[in-house]
UniProtKB/TrEMBL annotation:
This is DNA-binding response regulator. GO terms for molecular function: DNA binding. Residues 157-222 form the HTH luxR-type domain. Keywords: DNA-binding, Phosphoprotein, Transcription, Transcription regulation. InterPro entries: CheY-like_superfamily, Sig_transdc_resp-reg_C-effctor, Sig_transdc_resp-reg_receiver, Tscrpt_reg_LuxR_C, WH-like_DNA-bd_sf. It comes from Bifidobacterium pseudolongum subsp. globosum. Transmembrane segments: none annotated. It comes from the Bacteria. The keyword Ion transport does not apply. The modification 4-aspartylphosphate is found at residue 64. Residues 10-129 form the Response regulatory domain.
Length: 224
């Protein structure tokens, strides 16, 4: 078993699967014994917030590409638009092609399979040292270049940076698919009035007044 005992690296992990979070933390402990997992999160919004607070900003963030609510690519996009330093390593249990383009477009520096723990740790070390491996799974765009691109995009299209909660993201996803408040309420095992309250909060955050306007803003926010 190979270890990478180099410099101390502060690492954050975001994955909506609690078991996967534990497994990824163990990977870091095993292969990067000098490093430290400073926090683990299942909530993408919370991870973005932690990465914008100096005391909790990690040197590297391991991001699950298939997060529920806010996607892994959106987590990366929001972080990279405001920070050129944090190393963003995307991981997934699915076929890489499913998330590769979206993750790298969102500022992740690579997308790797979760079942390759040594590869994940090698990537963390290499990227923290400023090296970009010549590998198709890695972006040819530097973190600084991605930051400039995404910060400019944020200025041009600020709606993309609006912070919706995971439940608001879920509700808006169903609204975009044409589902009624009653249908969404049954799906989420809650009341129709609660869904309508979520919808009003979403409209306020997106700066719109109607469902049609919300759908347009939502799609623009996602780059569709």
């Amino acid at each position: 078993m190979m270890h990478y005992p180099g410099k101390h690296i502060r690492i954050g992990i975001v994955d909506n699967d609690a078991l996967a979070l534990g497994a990824l933390q163990q990977v870091v402990r095993t292969y990067l014994p000098q490093s430290e997992v400073i926090w683990k999160e299942t909530d993408g919004n919370r991870a973005v917030s932690l990465c914008s607070t100096p005391a909790t900003t990690p040197d590297a963030l391991i991001v699950d590409a298939s997060l529920e609510g806010m996607t892994g690519s959106e987590v990366c996009r929001r972080i990279r638009a405001n920070d050129a330093e944090i190393v963003l390593v995307g991981v997934t249990s699915f076929i890489l092609a499913r998330f590769h383009d979206a993750m790298l477009d969102g500022g992740a520096q690579c997308l790797l399979p979760k079942d390759k723990p040594q590869t994940i740790c090698q990537a963390v070390i290499a990227l923290c040292e400023g090296r970009i491996p010549r590998d198709a799974r890695f972006s040819t765009e530097s973190a600084a270049e991605a930051h400039r691109r995404l910060s400019k995009e944020q200025q041009v299209n600020p709606i993309r940076t609006v912070m919706l909660s995971p439940r608001e993201e879920e509700v808006m996803t169903w609204i975009d698919l044409g589902k009624t408040s009653l249908w969404i309420a049954k799906r989420l095992n809650t009341s129709e009035s609660t869904i309508k309250t979520y919808a009003q909060r979403i409209y306020t955050k997106l700066g719109v007044h109607t469902k049609v306007e919300a759908i347009i803003a939502w799609r623009n926010r996602r780059g569709e």
